[in-house]
Design goal:
Blueprint (H helix, E strand, L loop, with lengths): L2 H8 L7 H18 L10 H22 L4 E5 L7 H7 L4 E5 L3 H14 L4 E4 L10 E7 L4 H11 E12 L3 H7 L4 E2 L3 E2 L6 E7 L6
Parallel strand pairs: 1-2, 1-4, 2-3, 4-5
Antiparallel strand pairs: 5-8, 6-8, 7-8
Helix pairs in contact: 1-2, 2-5, 3-4
Length: about 210
């Protein structure tokens, strides 16, 4: 896809330089190629992929970086690489781990990271329960079953770190009630008119 068109589609979310726009173009081409063979995303139109996947992911990354220093980040259940890969593109100084237990999706992520030359990204192709490290930020997108997924995400957050959820506005109360030990801030509406919000919470420094 033409980088000028990509820039226009991303305008409500973020402004990016030409280098990042070219990386997004390459990313979309690779995603569409792989998506013809396996289900990486239900969204098929390149324009919608740019706005829904990239736009929302860059919006989240920008917000997290503006709210405080990020040393390292985990994208839990990365799938096709969102929001972790856009985060890594935006912030090359941050070490980003993509956790994806599905072998085929993990293989796609490895090819993607190689194609984009992202030296700050590693892929953990196993269950999150087996990941031995923690990070200052853990992000999840399209979250279901909070009772099961949130405790896992919270365990991966370093004490004093943050958890970021990209969820529907109707899910906010359930998320907050499932993790009362987290100090949640007010949800931020994600541009695009899809009733999506960014819900960020801090893990108290005394909580392991």
């Amino acid at each position: 896809m033409d980088t000028t068109a990509i820039a226009q589609l991303l305008e409500p979310y973020i402004q990016l330089d030409e280098t990042r726009l070219r990386a997004i173009s390459k990313y979309v081409d690779l995603l569409l190629k792989w998506n013809a063979r396996m289900n990486l995303t239900a969204i098929r139109m390149p324009e919608e992929i740019i706005q829904r996947h990239f736009g929302e992911s860059f919006f989240v990354a920008n917000d997290l970086l503006a709210q405080g220093a990020v040393e390292d980040a985990i994208d839990l259940g990365s799938g096709a690489g969102f929001p972790g890969v856009p985060f890594a593109l935006l912030a090359p100084q941050v070490r980003v781990t993509l956790i994806e237990s599905n072998h085929k999706k993990a293989t796609f992520l490895k090819e993607l990271v190689f194609a984009l030359g992202l030296a700050n990204v590693e892929i953990f192709g196993d269950r999150a329960e087996n990941y031995p490290k923690r990070a200052s930020v853990v992000a999840m997108r399209a979250v279901e079953s909070f009772d099961r997924t949130l405790p896992l995400a919270i365990r991966l957050v370093r004490p004093g770190g943050r958890i970021a959820l990209m969820i529907g506005s109707a899910q906010v109360d359930a998320a907050m009630e499932s993790a009362t030990q987290i100090e949640w801030r007010d949800p931020v509406v994600v541009p695009g008119g899809h009733s999506r919000v960014l819900l960020v919470g801090a893990k108290p420094a005394k909580v392991e």
